[in-house]
Amino acid sequence: MSDYPPVAKMTYDDGRIIGMEINEEWWESSKQEYLDFRRFKQNMTGEWAEDSIVNYEKLDGLSGLIVDPPENWLEKEHEDEELVEGEASFLDLRISLILNIIRDKALKTILDQEIAHIENLIGENDFKTAIIRQSAFFEEFLAMTCVVKLGRNKKEALSNKDLGIVEQMGHSDRIRLARILRVINEKQHQRLQEMASMRNEIAHTPWTEFGEDKEKTIQRIATKSFEVMDQLSVSMDEKLSFY
């Protein structure tokens, strides 16, 4: 038996399996590997991401990945030995599902941490700083969520090549890509484009030159962009409950 906690566990309703979630004991011991964009890119793209999870299975089989896996899953694990080369195994599908949950949980946690920072800035009426910080955050956050979505659409591992292409895009183009991939809706797209435009104005204008009307516009944009962050957090929480 391994000393490491399994990565995932089943969720139940009245004794009936209804889904899967990350094992909190594993998450508490491992989450720092995923909770900033640099480490997320490093640990959740390329072959390393899958290899890191497969190591748990190598130690204890499916039980190393999932707390008390269902008996029929354990039977299917043994059936994988009869698969022809190139055919997706039951274990491969479980690993892919677990990686998807880890990515979504990590991105939601990163988002919620940033929400707390922006909430403090808005509470202090520091709307210009809030917009600059929101813009920098969304530039990376949307790149990550778009690459995750692309990988799922193609049913492939997250690609460093795809990530490189997205990272060559400007901020406005990343927002457009997020809209195309349905990461954000049209109203959110409009609000984030307005935020990106205002960020440039704030960054290149002496703040003493902003009049009362412009300050009210900045406050409105910062507040509406914060609402987008909150909406995305809620939708990501709902998504995690459906695995």
How would you characterize this protein structure?
It comes from Natrinema soli. This is DUF4145 domain-containing protein. It is built from 11 helices and 3 strands, in the order E-E-H-H-H-H-E-H-H-H-H-H-H-H. It has 243 residues and is mainly alpha-helical. The chain has one domain. A 3-stranded mixed beta sheet has the order 2-1-3. The two termini are 27 Å apart. The mean pLDDT is 84.
Please name the defining characteristics of this protein.
single chain; 243 residues; mainly alpha; three-stranded mixed beta sheet; 11 helices; elongated; DUF4145 domain-containing protein
Summarize the structure.
Helix content is 70%, strand content 6%. The chain is built from eleven helices and three strands; from the N terminus they run ββααααβααααααα.
